Each structure stands twice: as C-alpha cells, then as structure tokens.
Amino acid sequence: MKMYWQVSENPFEVKALASDNDVLEMLSKLPRNHYVHIYLEEVRPYQSNAASVEPEMNADSNSEVRVDFSEKPSDDHNVDENIGEPETNDNLSVSSEIRVDSNSDSEDIDYEVEKSTTYESGFSDSEDDLEDDIVSKGVGDNMTQEGSHKPNVEGSDEVRVDSEPDSVNSESFHSLDESDSDGQHKKPRYHEFNTTVDISNPIFKVGLLFATKQVLRESIKMYSIKNRYTVKLKRNDNRRIQAVCKAGCPWNLWASPINFKEPNETWQIKSLIGEHRCLKEYKNSNMTAKFIANQYLDKFHTDPNYSSKSLKQDVFRDYNISVHLSKCIRAKNLALEKLHGDIKGQYTRLYDYLGELRSSNPGTTTVLKLDEGVFERLYICMQAMKDGFKGGCRPIICLDGCHLKGHYGGQLLSAVGMDAEDNLYPISFTIVEAETESSWCWFMEILKTDLELNNSHHLTFMTDKQKGLMESVAELFPHVDHRTCVRHLYNNFKLHEQHKGKALKDQLWRAARATYVREFEAAMETLKGLSSAGHTWLSGKDPTMWSKSHFSFKAKSDILLNNHCECFNKMIIEARDKPIITLVESIRSKLMQRIAKKRDEAEKLTGPLCPKIQKKLDNAFLLSQRCWPVRAGGAMYQVSCGPQDQHSINMQTETCSCRRWQLTGIPCIHAISVILMLEDRPEKFVAPCYSVSTQMSIYSHFINPVRGENQWSSEETQLSVLPPILRRPPGRPHKNHRRRE
Questions:
Q1: What is the pLDDT of residues 716-738, one digit of tens each?
Q2: Most buried of the four, 1, 24, 67, 284, by CB within 10 Å?
Q3: Model-level pTM?
C-alpha cells in the first residue's frame, strides 16, 4: 500500500509519502485548518509494475486519510512511531481518518511507511462517502508499552493521539529517576512533587510522587490554605492517607507508599476526586501558629520587633484567611524561638560556647558561677577590650545595671570606659540574678583582677546610687574618686514635698556645674534662700561626688551624668530579651562591629584631634573673644571677662583659676585668649588623651569572629548547666495585665 498527500486544493496534486523527509515536508506545509488529506493506494498482487506513480482518482477505488493537528508541531520534533498496515482485502473499501493531537512534549514520533512493489490501487468510494463513514477510536488501546501503534485491523476508524501530561494514565507521568547509562534516553514515568517550586501552590494528580509522608501532609495543608478549603486527614497512618473536604463535598484524595516494607518509602497519589462543591471560607483550621511562624520567618529575622497586629493583617492580605490575634502572638513566639534558639536548651551548651569564645579570642576572661548545677552568674571580658582600655582610655570607669527581659529575667551589670572622643568604650559585662551588694562585689572583684587595678589612687568611678554599689566600691577600692550621677541625685531630691519646683532644680544644677569652690558656695547660698530644707538635704551629700568644684584632676573628665552606661544599655536593648547564648553573642557581635567601625573612622581623620574635641575647642575659641588677657610677668597672665569675672593663668603649669582646664585637659576660654595673644595654636595645649593617635591605639585591637554552633567542640567533661529558678518578684502582682505589644 502506498500513501499520498494532497498538496493544494486541487485533489489531483498529490505527493508520495515514502520517507521521513516527505512526512516532515507535509508537516511544514500544514494548512491553517490543521487538516491534511492523505490517500492510500492499494496495489493488487500479480499486477504490472508499470502503474502510474500518481493514483487515478476513481470514485470506487478511493481511500482518504484525514489528519487533524490541533497544534502545528515544530520542525525539531521527530516522529518515530510506526503506523501499522491494515490487512489487504480485494473487496475491502478502506476509509479512515487519523486525528493527531500534538500538544504534548512526549517522545518524538517518526512515521515509517512500508513500501509495496506489486500492489495495484483500487478506489471504490468517493471522498464525501469516506468522510461520512469515519468512526472515532482512542489510540490508548492500540499503543504498546514501547509507544508504537498496534496494527489497526478495523475497516474504518479515527485514531486520536492525545499526549497531554495531565492524563490519568500512569504511563504519562514522569519521575526523576532517569538513566541513560545504556546510551538511550528514557523518559520517566511519573511526576515528582518539587518541594521548592510546587509547595507554594500544590496541584494534585493521580500518580504524583512525594519524597516522604511529611511532604505529602505539608502539601495537603498548603493546598487547603491556598484554596481556602477546609481539608482534613480522615485516615493518616503509615500505610495510607485519605484527605477529605467538609461534609457534602466530593473532593477526596487517597495516597499510599509504593513499597510498604521500606521505612522511608516514596508516597504516591492513587486516586483523586478534584471537584469541590463547597464554598471557600475565611477561617481555616490548617492555618496554625506553627505554619504562620514558618511562612513569616524571614520578616522576623529582618525585624525582630515585627508586631503581632501587623502579622495578622499580612496573613489576611496574603491568604484571605482571618486569624485571631492570640494565634499571631503564639506564631511570633515560635518564630523568635526558632531564630534565637531554645530558651532552656541554650543553657546546656553554655560551656561549649564559652570554650569557643576563649579559643577564638585568646586571653578572653569567662567566669561561670553555678549553684549545684543551676546557672547563677556569668562574667565576660574580651581580651581586645582589655587591651584597648589599657592602651589609651582615661582612668574613669562607669558602672551601671539594666534589667533583662527574657524568660528567666535577671540583670546585666556593665563597666564602660571613655575613648579619646569622649564616647563610650565597653570593657566588660556580667549577668546576675539580681542587683545586690553580693552580685556587685562579685563583679567588681573579678574586674579588679582582670584589669590589674591594684592601685586605686588614680582611678575614678561614675555610678548611680544603686543597691549595694556604693558599699562595694568603698570596700574594694578605698582610695578611688567616686562620683554619682546628678540626674539620679535630683530624682531623689525632688521626692520630698518641699524640694519641688524649677527654681530649686536650676540652683541644684548650678551648684553641680560650678568649677571652683566660691562659685559652688554662692549657688548653695541661693538654694538656701529658696528652701532651707532643700539646702539641708543637699548639704548632707558629699560634694566630691556630685560637684565639679570638688572633683580631682586625675580622670581628665568633668562628666556629671552616667550617660555612657545608659547609652550602652540602649545599644544592647535588642538583645536583652534573648536567650543566654544569643544575648552574649549579640553583645559580642555589636562590640566587634563597633571596634572595626571606629578604627575605620580614625584612619580617615586628618587633624591632630578627634572631631568632637576639635568642635569643643572651636566653640571655646569663639567665646574667648570677649576675654582680655594681660601679662603679669613670666608665665603668669591675668584674664578679665567682665565685671567680677577675672582669672589668673599659668602657661607653664597649664592651669587656670576656674579649674576647667585642669578638669578636662582642654584649654578654657581664658587660656585660649592668652594662647592667641602669644600667637600660638590652642591644639598644642590639649591633653594627649584626646589625640587621633590615642584613638588609633585604643581601637587597634579587634575581636575575632566566632564559628557557628554546629562547629563548636563539645565540653564532655563539664556537667550540663540547668537554667535558673524562676523567682516570684517581690510585692503584690499587678492587677492590670501588661500589654503584650
């Protein structure tokens, strides 16, 4: 039998289909209606070979095959399936239409046409009669396992090849288990669920493979949430899973493992009814707090203060599902716990972390105090911070504490110094159960040994009037200059009913800012005229602890507030509600970044002084223009700044009767006026503790990074640390609950 195809609308213009190239030429010239007329010529045996190549179009010997292409295939699709040749019969009139649907990306098909040599054509029916006798038949019954057609023995049929991948037939699914070791490319049989791509919007099909049972369960949950259907697992065991929708809805999914004997076998969907007859809902039981925490984990990582109200709004915007605020609060707690670690579990790895901290930063001091295995106190001082303090910081240390907001509470005590630019320089910190005299003594005793502060004559401490702190300083550092924060002093001062009012406040601050004794006494006399009770109360406080007029010159600082510790407490505020290891690691990371940043800033400075000190000197230079210096002889000068405002300057000893130059190490306005009269630069008379070289020396020691938890070496010889015991706070519990947001 020979095959021909019609080239144009003229039924007598046909071409033979004798090779693959002929088939490709036919496909390339496919008309717009996707129909091609194919003619079959039946050659009877024992007939002469002189028959014409092109068949005669007789009405009774005509056979036509009509091919319907639903989509024109591309030129790079090859065809390799054989079309079976029908049985020959002299009296059989062949009329068939083959309809090929080429929407799929299945295996390429090559049509092979067997050539016949001694057959003669005979056409018995017209073209119209052939089209009326077409009978449709699916190709699935005529396909072998290898993909080739079985011979078609029926007289008239329409063969439809449907290569859509959505077919329920399991042979249309693909798996990722391809193997081309034998040199032949084999298509996989089943689709495999991709947890990276498909999980965002699962689409189920019969035969779909899942790596594990958990992946299948998660995909069903995501399908329920994404499509807003209440899907539940009616059966859920190691041999089967049945997912159903609400009562009255036909949607149903059955899945089971491919091999029950394997513990972690692949699961497959065996049957599926994908039709829903229920309405979509705004509430879904599958939208759990755990699911919300996993979906919005990145937002909590970017913004730990991401509120639960904002989370509720984002869930409704993204999924059109309404959730209760309490569920969002639980989701937030789960997300933060996943990001920052288990609150109780971190205590068990505390020894491992401290060992890693000491190995990555040699010389670092870590002291852990336990009470029968229960955590009590922790002291940490990085070696880089110790070296920086000894390398250029002034001998003044600020001490303060702050509350921890974590599950177990406690307090964090800190020791902070001052760098060359009057900025804070953290030295060490400790975590204690409460702020008591015992905890302060424990902290300062270790600090004294760690910084080698054996001689306290040159030291100055700035503290608040906190519990046990005054007694601890007096016991461990008997010869130290002790200052107290004036803001806390005024807070205690105004507690008395007779000590309130702005006039009293101004006079107290005037007495505190007085730089020489006579100015301090004048401010106290004015305060006595306003309130004798206030004067009596304030006179009972040692002026060496709160007034500049009685400060010594050892610290080269005239600060009245403990702002450096307050700034440090604010710097670590984001870490104060974290678990123990996350808290310490967050503080260490902030200190590491701060040192590197300050070092880079110092390297870019061009002048001899730090920018903040240079700005103070420039302001003093402007104010010095109202002063009139007069030389008294030798290195002595007299400076007048107005009525009853006259001071003496000694340029040899670099002192002024106002005591401001000696207190800070920066020339006062009186000294600058004399320096300008001598045609010199004020920068030369600034103390070296404010120079850029000192700042470089302070920040020349860096904190090394610490490896991740999975790389810590285990301290097997140490006992496991238990979390501290939760203690009931003193006093009556608050009646009104605290706001959780």
A1: 667 788 999 887 666 666 555 44
A2: 284
A3: 0.65
